[in-house]
Amino acid sequence: MKHSIFQIALILSLWSGISSAQPPIGTDAPANLFTEKALVAPHIHVENLSQFLKWSGKPIPQGDYSPEYFEKTRLGTITFSSDLRVHIDVIRDTVHFPSYFELVDSHSGIVLGKYPVFDPQDAEWYFSGNGTAYLNQKHLSLCGPRYTRKIVQKGKGLAEVTQGLVYVGAETDVESATQLYESPTSRTVVATVVPGTKVTVLGLVPGKSEFFEMAFLVKTPFGLTGWHVPRDKLGDGRISIYQCN
Question: Helices then strands (H, E): number in the chain?
């Protein structure tokens, strides 16, 4: 079947519009990792509805959070495991960021974990009920990408699992000539990417909070991978994932 030039142009135009509407990987698009899990409160997912009890008590004290800047709310109580129940509190920064989630031992009232987030609306929790929770959120030191944290029970406390590589999976622009190395500590160059190149940041070494302390695993348009290690020096190169303005 033959198509006229007009029909072909129309099809290409429609296809272009559909393609451009897709959210880019690793941006601040809403997280959808836990959508198949039961939603019991805004951004709080559980394995079973019986794990969650909505808070119906009195408003809780602000504690160390000034009411001039923060709003503290208790969402409810979650069965973290068979022998640990935790209150989940949201502390919203009404002026700036970050805001916080706190997991509080329902028996002792001790704060077991405090988790900063860009905004409570950007965070997604999943509580498995078997001593494990997952928090997917925007990275506070990067421009747009999300990542997932794993929190596990240790005795009556909570601890975050250290990941070998924090997955990012975000496309970003090269702003100045950037060398990629064979490892985070090596000075052997694998590739050099020039300004204007689009690269994919696959992940980063965990445990660092400032971009100039981080090491990013980068994939070039040719499919090569190497480590970008910014040290805030002119020769290190720059990529836009840690430059929001």
Answer: 1, 18
